[in-house]
Prior knowledge:
The protein is mainly alpha-helical. The chain has five helices and two strands; from the N terminus they run αβααααβ. The chain has a two-stranded antiparallel sheet with strand order 1-2. The longest helix is centred in the C-terminal third of the chain and has 13 residues, at 106-118.
Amino acid sequence: xxxxxxxxxVAENCPATKCLRQVARLTxxxxxxxxxxxxPDSVKPQLGEQCPYFAHSERVTIARGFTTALRLIPQGNxxxxxxxxxxxxxxxGYYLWRKGNVLLTPKHQAYIEAIFRRxxxxxxxxxxxxxxxxxxxx
Length: 138
């Protein structure tokens, strides 16, 4: 089932048949009594341009938490690793990511992997998140 607050698209004649907003609308119309929708007048990309609201409908790997991966960081590098995260986020944000309270999209995972690799995570080892699963990028 789709994320309840995810805006759906009701634009007519949309060429983006693999847009998550269209797919979710077509498959969840009977399940929810109300919808959030994009204004159809604002969903009119210029010829040859992609709609600014387009979202891929393929499932991606979503991760939660990286406490498991931290075990492979050399102890002497832990403080520097945390400090690098804190350049871009608050301390509470770092702990929310680390503990798994925030969904980590592929973009987040690439960011995390780059930091981990710079701080001694084995190059030949995939990042081991606490939990992963396939889902849409709502």
